[in-house]
Each structure stands twice: as C-alpha cells, then as structure tokens.
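Hey,
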Amino acid sequence: YTWDANEEYLFKAMVAFAMRRYSSKSTTQISNVLLCNVTDRVSFWFVVTDSSKNVTTVPGSEVEAAIRMNRNRINNAFLLSDKTLQFLKITSTLSPPVEPSTPVWLIVFGVVLCLIVAGIVFLVVSGIQKHKKKNKESSERENLEEKVEVTLENGIPCEALDLKAGHINGVFAADDERFTSL
C-alpha cells in the first residue's frame, strides 16, 4: 500500500468530513487537519485545528467522537477495515463476535443422537415387518396344506391324496381283472 500525497489528502478530507458531520458546522477545512510524524509504515498522528480561532486545536474527545461516528465511511474510503486501519485511543466499531445461544458441541451431540435413535427405530420397525412377513408366509403354507388335505369335487369333500404312498382307486380295479386284456 503506497502512502503518498494523494492518500494524505484523502485522509485529511475524510477527517474534515467526519468533523463537519459531527459538529454540524461547515468551518472545518482540509487545511485544518495536520499530519505529523508520518512514517513509511503509514503511522502518524494528526491534529484538527479550529479555523474560527486560528491556532486552537479541537479537543481530542470531539475528534474521537467524530471518527467513531464516521468510522465506517473512513474505512470504506481506504478499502480497509477496523482490523487494518487502527486509531489509537479510539475503540474499534467492530461488534463483538456473535456467540450462539447453544454451544456447538451440544448441537453436534443432538444431531448424532438423533441419527442413532433414527437408526434404532429403523432396525426395530424392519425387524417387526420381517417377523410379520415370515408369520404370514408360514400361515399361508399351513393353509395350502389344509386345502390339499380337504378337497371338494362337485361339492363333495374328498380324501386327501397321499402323494408319497399313492392311492388306488377301487372303482376301476377289480379283483379278477388285474391286467387288461389285449
């Protein structure tokens, strides 16, 4: 950041502007702002004189109040912030850091706890659904077995066929005709 005569002029103009806004008088001119001990690192002190009384300086409390009131405009003129443009003996206008009403660790703990509870609920619900599905399938198998045992033909219940042992229908098998003749 190069600090030259143009930057000095802008600073003086901004301080004069702040003094005019603060005191509501148009008597402060750029020539009333004096810079002293300017260094290469852009460090200096300044004095504001009162033009109506010629050599008298404006009290420091008024200058501080004027700068505090217009600090944002001064910072913006130099594209700086309260961290980069520092006025000694004038407190910065930065607001204190915002602290959340609940600690961060509590928020993280709540999120993790909710995820764990949701996982447990999911596992319990899916286990219950699997158990119901398994019971339903086993009851359907039992119902199918019962249907095989008692079948109806033309409204007349018939005996269940034992598929392993087989079943001989006595109507077609006569004792004397074991074999069909050719």
